[in-house]
Amino acid sequence: MRRELAKGCAMLMLILALALVTAVASANGQSNQARVTVPFDFIVGDQKLATGQYDVATMSGALDCLSFRNTSAKGAAVRLTVALDGKSRTAKLVFHRYGQNYFLAEVWTGAGTQGRRLLKSRQELAMEKELSRIASLNSPTTMIDTFEKIEIAMARN
Predict the structure, then answer these.
(1) Percent of the chain's residues with pLDDT above 70
(2) Rounded to whole angstroms, what are the CA distances from 41 to 32, 61, 67, 100?
(3) What is the C-alpha separation between 35 and 68, in angstroms, rounded?
(4) Which helix (H) or strand (E) holds 87?
(5) Which of 20, 29, 106, 117 is deepest in the core (most CB within 10 A)?
(6) What is the DSSP track for 96-154?
(7) Do 130 and 99 touch, CB atoms closer than 8 A?
């Protein structure tokens, strides 16, 4: 009898905790969604994603996350982001291109919202460091950008 009662109390506490977490997440989280077609393979964090159409969702709350999901094939990524200064009326993705490698760097969901910056991956940091080193050897007095910014417009959902 005691076991049954303890089991029932534990189950009730679990359900209440789950309900509380869900309520806090939905109260704190403000989701912005958009859809974009990316015409090249690209890297988000440690994951390489293929060319295709993606649903992008940012979730602001205790942790600021970016969800990036391919609409027709397997491929998804979730990354923590930091806020950028300024706001944008247009929804867009900003990539850093190093040769044939594209790294997702910023997400702007538009409608006057603040942009989100993804932290650079180890691979991008290593590539940037090597290209900077090569550029400084070729022209030590001139600072040269090591990447090209590529912007792609998104359609808000």
Answers:
(1) 76
(2) 24, 30, 17, 9
(3) 10
(4) strand 76-88
(5) 106
(6) EEETTEEEEEEEEE-TTEEEEEEPPPHHHHHHHHHHHHHHHHH-TTS---SSEEEEEE-
(7) no
